[in-house]
Amino acid sequence: VTFLRTILLLALGAATPAYADVETSKVRAVPTGSVAIGVAGHAGKLAGLTEGAWGPMLEVALGNGRWQYLAEGSYQLVNLGASDGIAGRKLRGGLGVRWLARSFELGTRGAIDMHLEGVAGVSRTELDGMDRVVRPDLGAGVGYQIRAFYGRRQARQAGFRVSARILFAPPDRESVIAACAGSCPTPPVAGASSGFMGVFGGVF
Amino acid sequence: LKTLVLLCLLCGVARAEIYIVDPDRPPPEPPTHTRLFGFRIGGGILPVRDTTLDTLSLALMVEHRAHGKWRIAGEYEYAWLGVRDDEMDGLVDGNGHRASLSIRRAMLESRRLIQGTLRFYADLELGGGFMLATEPTTGTLAVPHGFAGVRLGYRFIKLHRETRASPVWEPELVVRAIATRHDAPLGLFAGVGINWGD
Q1: Chain B: closest CA distance from residue A13 (Å)
Q2: DSSP letter, residue B49
Q3: How close does chain B come to A178, measured CA to CA in Å?
Q4: Which of A41, B80, B159, B180 could in theory staple to B56 by disulfide, Cβ–Cβ 3.0 to 4.6 A?
């Protein structure tokens, strides 16, 4: 029994500090709850036509250590095709997770963090005079945020975040052809959409 | 058993780094160039198959110090490709993956400024890699490449002495000339990256 206790103590003694080094000590924890308000922009393809969109976005997130679990929504103005193409509006909602990969502390009251994130969402696009197009999407991104710590024991946080994402959406040729009803400026071609999404804004 | 417990507790602090702190001197530049991790966003032009593609890319990068001022770096890029027309259309027509390995050497470095917390640098880099992509004009692309470039940036060094966060932070501007074929014109890439040290 003594031998087993000794082995157990040795294992605990050796393992605990090593774990602390790797996982818990290098990044100041994210807040348990936060809200982000900003702008989301997107460039991609909708059934072979170039799609550009931008508009306000809102994110709410629950945090735990380095991790954040987020829900986001945005309303975007859309332009499909060339600059004088089809106009429209898009509503998009998504769920995701964010991990603070690295952090550089700006003294004791601030930090610049690198994050990696993944999101899954769905968007509903309404093009002028046409039916709506609903598409799911999947994204992976990277970015940075500048955090300020304030309040009693510096427990409160506020900052600014920038994220860049790769956003995949399935081809949706049929629905757009139906939506265009023959009025698309060029015939849409099939093809998966691999778009770029940028998000920036304040975090509170 | 008590002795063993004490030994265990001592094992717990065996990995702690020991700093002799002199408040009048700047903190030592940590051996951080040992490893960097970061990302970069950038764009450029890439001549392939008698076509010049516009590129936009998002990259993850990791670097290790090899020896002295030499570093070895690896990166993965997700790239958007296209032939842009008058309407600035088509940049996201295609997409692909690009992986590169490079070596990098500090050529110019400033003195440490602002109480030893900031240093400017200019590095040269040389590397190569491979891109696998699809684009409507060119079809499927499997293109090896080589590049030479410069990295201009600055390095913040541990602004908070007691921190155990990243000891170094490096934003930088990257400019590269990219060769894909001996008889093709050079491509060009420019981007902005940020690295965190370990």
Answers
A1: 5
A2: T
A3: 22
A4: B80
How buried is residue A190: exposed, middle or buried, by Cβ count under 10 Å (0-12/13-18/19+)?
exposed
Q: Rounded CA gap, A152 and A146, in Å?
A: 20
CB half-sphere exposure, B87, CA atoms < 13 A = 13
The amino acid sitting at A81 is G
- Closest-CA residue in chain B for A44? B92
Assess contact for A55 and A74: CB atoms under 8 A. Answer: yes
Does the beta-carbon distance from B8 to A103 stay under 8 Å? Answer: no
pTM of the predicted model as reported, rounded to 2 decimal places: 0.79
Output the pLDDT for position B12. Answer: 46
Query: What is d(CA B166, CA B160) in angstroms, rounded to the nearest whole number?
Result: 10
Q: Do B15 and A18 touch (CB under 8 A)?
A: yes
Distances (CA, A) of A23 to A57, A102, B138, B174: 31, 11, 45, 31
Write the pLDDT tens digit of every residue in A86-131.
Answer: 888 999 999 999 999 999 988 788 899 999 999 999 999 888 877 7
